[in-house]
Amino acid sequence: MAGNFSFDQLKKAVSSGEIDTVLACIVDMQGRLAGKRFLAQYFVDSAHDETHGCNYLLAADIDMEPVPGYKAASWSKGYGDFVMKPDLATLRRIPWLEKTALVICDVLDHHTHDDLPHSPRAILKKQVKRLSERGYIGYFASELEFYLFNETYDSVRKKHWQGLDTASPYIGDYQIGITTKEEGVMRRLRNEMEAAGIPIENSKGEWGPGQEEINVRYAEALDMADRHVILKNGAKEIAESEGKAISFMSKYNYGLAGNSSHIHNSLWSADGRTPLFFDKKADWTLSTLGQQWAAGQLKYAKEFTWFLAPYINSYKRFQAGTFAPTKIMWSEDNRTAGFRLCGEGTKGIRMECRIGGADLNPYLAFAALIAAGLAGIDEKLELQKPFVGDAYQASRLPEIPKTLRDATETLAKSKMLKQALGEDVLEHYVHTAKWEQLEYDRRITDWELHRGFERY
């Protein structure tokens, strides 16, 4: 939960005129920042304690349409307020916006001032607390991939998202020469995120023309999720200021690589000094605890896939031969696997979940992985032997759900998630998934028109 700016520092910066705006942000169900821009002096005087927002923000779809059928918020209940409680530990300067600071807010019930259970940040905090009660810290790192376009967001819309000009004309995976063309945005992104208290390890070209990957240094789970959403929001703001556009869409083009968000995760001692997954005498140097954790994630992967792939489009990414997984299994340093063991033989040993796309909400994804890992520990599950070979061609391995409909069905039936997250919380997100499917099912797509309109 570490920002780079204390409240006392903010007060001094406001007094001197260095900061005149504070963004107070919650994270919505889609993993986006939503909130208010405060005159900084007003935030320092009173709004740092709390402010309020309409509770439809956690009951709306990606188009901000209020979705009927939620228990937590509805027209019949009047769409009242919830409390936005700034977590001042997340306060940070935002270098790419003039004289601006940002703080992440927890979402609280308007009457009780308890965490709102279906708030994404509250869901993750609950799972982090479960780790803490056992003396564990969960360290996470989410890699983010995205496409960078020599387009503005306006020009992209006017082209109807077709025939877009990518920042590089061909694949520049790891290539330094071609990615130099993209440095106008990428250099700013690395340096200005670092200045905002989000430590960037590196960026690189990815396996698509104009596709980028940026790696943030690992952190405690809640801190990492905060970093993730600020980075996504800031990347788009920086790109727009440079006359460019960015997309984190899971699969924007059928013929090109999808955008992933691989999630590295491990457990450490409560003081953060001792890696609990490393045992040099164990198979694969992965401790019994680590093996049980991984086995839980494998066992329940179908049940929590929706938290890693929440949209219709998310499932278009799972294609053989594209570096996106199609099977639920684990392997040693094998990029065809749904789960990959990294850092074998070192204190940095960890599991990498490769299922998630860049369109995921990190709070929900991390929470689901923690819940499954803890279930594996509680059930003392035994980790299967690692798969060797090309998982795309292995016919007997369990498959990742192929569609949003399939993933929603397994999500709704998950006893593990119901127990870990709470029945009402699970129901809230099952309803979210069903609404997304309904919205798709009743629309006519360009593909349908192309294939089905009368030809003469």
Automatic annotation (TrEMBL):
Role, per record: Catalyzes the ATP-dependent biosynthesis of glutamine from glutamate and ammonia.
Domain GS beta-grasp positions: 17-115
One Pfam family here: Gln-synt_C
Highest rank taxon of the organism: Bacteria
Upper lineage: Bacteria, Pseudomonadati, Pseudomonadota, Alphaproteobacteria, Hyphomicrobiales
Family affiliation: Belongs to the glutamine synthetase family.
GO biological process: one example: biogenic amine metabolic process
Protein name: Glutamine synthetase
InterPro entries, per database record: Gln_synt_N, Gln_synt_N_sf, Gln_synth/guanido_kin_cat_dom, Gln_synth_cat_dom
GS catalytic domain location: 120-456
Cofactor(s) needed: Mg(2+)
Organism name: Mesorhizobium intechi
Coiled coil (UniProt feature): none
Keywords noted in UniProt: ATP-binding, Ligase, Nitrogen fixation, Nucleotide-binding
